[in-house]
Amino acid sequence: MTSVRIPPVLRVHVDGQKEVDATGGTVGELLRDLVGRHPGLGEQLLTADGSLHRFVNIYLNGQDVRYLAGLDTSIGDRGSVIILPAMAGGSGRPTGV
Amino acid sequence: MIAAGAVLIDTREPHEWNAGHLTGATLIPPIDVMDKIGQAAPDRDKPVVVYCASGVRSMRAALQMAALGYRNVSSVAGGIVQWKAEGRAWQMPEETPAIARNPRYARHLVMPEVGPDGQQRLAQSRVLFIGAGGLGSPGLLYLAAAGVGTLGIVDFDVVDLSNLQRQVVHADNRVGMKKTASATQTINALNPDVEVVTYDEMLTEDNVDRLIAGYDVVIDGTDTFETRYTLNDAAVRAAIPVVHASVFRFEGQLSVFVPYEGPCYRCLYPTPPPPELAPGCSVAGVLGVVPGVMGLLQATEAIKVLLRIGDPLVGRLLIWDALDGQFSEVTLRRDPQCPACGQGAAVAPALVVAG
Asked: Each residue's pLDDT tens digit in chain B (355 positions)?
């Protein structure tokens, strides 16, 4: 089991939890398992052909997996995974958070 | 006696120094000798000559330096008193800028990382805030207090009662006033030295280059993807650092984008999410203190960039979870394929922003 940190904007899809567990030897397997458990995350994370959306970054132990082996990056025993989508972040007004 | 190449140290108090000192000397008051000699004389094998008023304090300083491993330290017997009496050359301190005597900045002036030079640099600096809202409010207040010479504010909005839960640069009796005017009023009351330049307009592709021109640092307090990408691309074109932050409910993120030195926002996310996948934040809300903390972290990073001190958050994204009380950090990298700052990026034409 790997603990995956869910960003606040996506917690609505995981019953408000900050961290959820998923299994997988690679980042891709982990994400597919995660989406299987929480289907609402599917379209937020992955494109129709199963690759990672360009507005979502996955960090394994603080490193962007795009600069490792992407979805094929293997997760060690003590991997910590953070999902970070682009965040607009504010009151929804055109300027001034 | 004072050999060429020797480091000359004056170990007296500042008020004594101000009455005249030897040319080429560095002032290190007696209490600071152990801590500061390394900075003034990094090479312990090079000769050091130390003097005070009469030769007592300099003798003590010479012993301290010897204890630190300095091999060639001389104390001037008779000190500067005898030196002057013998008719030898000395000088008055260089004219210090007025700012170095301004009590407003006393707590900055005593720190070597800021000091008179740094304070002068802040006074000559220009920082542009995009948004005088939740992030901009604390940043404007503290950068004004810090003595940043020019603060630009881009905001076309008016103060709304619902803003006051976090936008502390405004006030209850200014609901309905333009945010630029309200912020200017607060800044002027706090520090009249600061020049405030206001732009009552929305940042767009058409005006962004004009708005950011001539600023040393831009603080991104926007909250739409469109403005964020527009600002990023223009800042990369103009090579102006952007201090980025975003907030959502109980969480904030922060990074410093220094064009071509570290990643830009498009290295991180080349394209924004489609509108249907980008949750609106007005519904989600934000704990008022969260933009307060993140706005102050932005101000901190801006000062570090302006003073060239410390380790700015370039290539690093700081994530703060207010409820957990935890800061975490991930590494950001420059994307060689970045459409804004990568190789072969189209620098001039504005990039299309989806949504």
From this structure: 565 679 999 999 988 988 889 988 999 999 999 999 998 999 999 999 999 999 999 999 999 999 999 999 999 999 999 998 988 888 888 776 788 889 999 999 999 999 999 999 999 999 999 999 999 999 999 999 999 999 999 999 999 999 999 999 999 999 999 999 999 999 999 999 999 999 999 999 999 999 999 999 999 998 788 899 999 999 999 999 999 999 988 999 999 999 999 999 999 999 888 877 765 555 678 999 999 999 999 999 999 999 999 999 999 999 999 999 999 999 999 999 999 999 877 654 444 444 3
CB nearest to B157's CB, from A67, A85, A96: A96
Cα–Cα dist B164/B145, whole Å: 21
Domain ranges of chain A: 2-85
Q: Which amino acid is at B281?
A: C
Is A87 an 8 Å CB contact of chain B?
Answer: yes
Name residues whose C-beta falls within 8 Å of residue A11's C-beta, 6 or more positions apart in sequence: A17, A18
Rounded to a whole number, what is the distance in Å from the CA of A13 to chain B's nearest CA?
A: 12
B281 catalytic? Reply is yes
CATH among 3.30.70.920, 3.10.20.30, 3.40.50.300, 3.40.1180.10 for A2-85: 3.10.20.30
Asked whether B266 and B340 are in contact (CB, 8 A), the reply is yes
Strand order in the sheet with B150-154: B195-199, B150-154, B126-130, B217-220, B242-248, B251-257, B316-321, B326-331
What do you get for the CA distance between the two ends of chain A, in Å?
37
Q: Is B352 buried (19+), middle (13-18) or exposed (0-12) by CB count in 10 A?
A: exposed
